[in-house]
Amino acid sequence: MAAPEYEAYFRVIRRIPRGRVMTYGDVAIAAGFPGRARRVGYALHGLKDARVPWWRVVNAQGRIAIDGGRGEGAERQRDLLEAEGVELVGEGRLRLADCRYVPPAFRSPGAGRRAPKRRGGP
DNA sequence: AGCCTGACTCGGA
DNA sequence: CTCCGAGCCAGGC
Asked: Which nucleotide C1' is nearest A73 CA?
């Protein structure tokens, strides 16, 4: 990768357990680059490393982000997710509440839900 | 250099 | 539920 920033993203994504998913924003935060959700998307867009389970990354709405959820890429991702046991609802939508993966570092006393709210950037 | 795009996100209408 | 605008930022032209 050109930038260590991308390496950090891929490292986080590689840690996602089978059958779980993370959102772009959470991957960015876990990698130490809060507010860089778009960078994560761009990093995956140009991804060539097959070791990275890119299909375990979806947008914050629990939808397939590729091509608006439609197209070959989206179909492939849906296929891979289903193969791992991720429950899909409707067209390219999944139950985030059941399969969302939150790294231990994210957990904070009291909250135990999601990362602190961030709007776009820092 | 500037301008446009996008595998993002969030709050509001 | 959907649609829209604003914020961010690396890449491509």
From this structure: B7
